[in-house]
Amino acid sequence: MTSSLKLLLVAGARPNFMKIAPVLRGIQARHGTFNHVLVHTGQHYDEGMSDVFFRELEIPAPDYHLSVGSGSHAQQTARIMTAFEPVLDTEKPDCVVVFGDVNSTLACSIVAKKSGYPVAHVEAGLRSGDMSMPEEVNRIVTDSITDYFFVTEESGLEHLRHEGKPDKKVFHVGHVMIDNLYFELERLEREPIVDSALQGSRPPARQFCVATLHRPSNVDDKEILGGIMSAIGKIAETLPVIFPVHPRTRANLQQFDIPVSTQITLTKPLGYREFLRLWRDAALVLTDSGGLQEETTALGVPCVTIRENTERPITLTAGSNMLVGCKPQAILDGAKAMLNRYPTGRSEGRPALWDGRASDRILDILARELRHLAS
User: What pLDDT does residue 46 have?
Assistant: First the structure.
């Protein structure tokens, strides 16, 4: 009987959890093919941004919780590397699987590679072209040492080909986060949840906007954050805005004493299911999140991205997303254009392979490649 393959999965921050959940479901469905070790680095240490997601997404308790917490990028990356090395020494996996572009992705990839373990990168090949973004550095460095590249969209294939990665190690599989999105949508239909944050006061479907904002380039500068909030306030004069506030953003709104329109409803950070239940019904989403650009594209919800660039160009070509930068007038113009473009509140384009089966493809490939590596 063939022995099972050991995968060590690394989660560090909120976006990782949505991507790990469908992979774990796939592992459980393949009885005996894999066993797994789940490592939570604790990069997101706020309970509302981390632990609640494990409960909601029904992710099992981590086998290791490294509890690295906050700090500068260098401090956090160093703490993750130091804490992760003994885990590898103990577990000796067949492959280390990292997700996305957070500091944990970079740190654990480096330690795994230097320790002689294969690295698989889920969401490989994305590029913004903006090296001032810490995530871009993480993406490029991780892909420079990755062994198995799992790509979400065509642009990722092009970037990896341009960077000289071998075609036989690059796999266009679709997007595991979209797998999870479809799974949770079906679950919401079966298991309705109580609206705790808005206490039943949410406007009717497609008669409100949802906003999220967390990137340091947008929220750490008083003038930029003030301008963005001014633009969102003007949008809220005609279409109410619901704004789940990231802890970093809330702290800076208070520190900078930035006024918030009374037409903007501020809430605590929402769990995955409650937030999904909210934004799926929005007329428009305003965000600087990478993942939310993709999720809105999958459901055809119009999105205005408050950034100067995006590493997810498929969301632009699909038509559901518009990149506007952070200037107030550009945000207003973009919101108006998207609302006019989609008066029914939905677009029709969907990227290739965003069909809910990316996790299956990834696990099939890993089983084949790792068996071949061991033979």
Answer: 54
pTM: 0.92
Structure tokens at 44: 């997101």
Least confident of 21-30, 116-125, 282-291, 346-355: 346-355
Residues 6+ apart with CB under 8 A from 115: 85, 88, 89
Percent pLDDT > 70 in the chain is 95
- Tell me the backbone φ, ψ of residue 210, rounded to 5 degrees: -120, 135
Q: What is d(CA 261, CA 241) in angstroms, rounded to the nearest whole number?
A: 10
pLDDT at 296: 96
Catalytic residue among 36, 65, 214, 246: 214
Q: Whose structure tokens read 């960077």?
A: 163
Per DSSP, the residues of 263-324 read: TEEEEPPPPHHHHHHHHTT-SEEEE--HHHHHHHHHHT--EEE-SS--S-THHHHTTSEEE-
State how far the alpha carbon of 9 is from the alpha carbons of 23, 104, 266, in Å: 9, 11, 34
Task: Answer yes or no: are the C-beta atoms of 39 and 64 closer than 8 Å.
Answer: yes
Read off the tokens for 189. 């239909």
Residue 214 known to be catalytic: yes
Q: What is the pLDDT of residues 337-367, one digit of tens each?
A: 999 999 877 888 789 999 999 999 999 999 9
Q: Which residues partner with 53 through β-bridges?
A: none
Q: From CA 286, how far away is CA 322, in angstroms rounded?
A: 10
Q: Positive or negative, the Cα torsion across 325, 327, 328, 329?
A: negative
Residue with tokens 């099939």, as numbered in its chain = 364
Residues paired with 214 in a beta bridge? none
Tokens representing 213 are 């904002």
- A 10 A CB-CB count for 251 gives 12
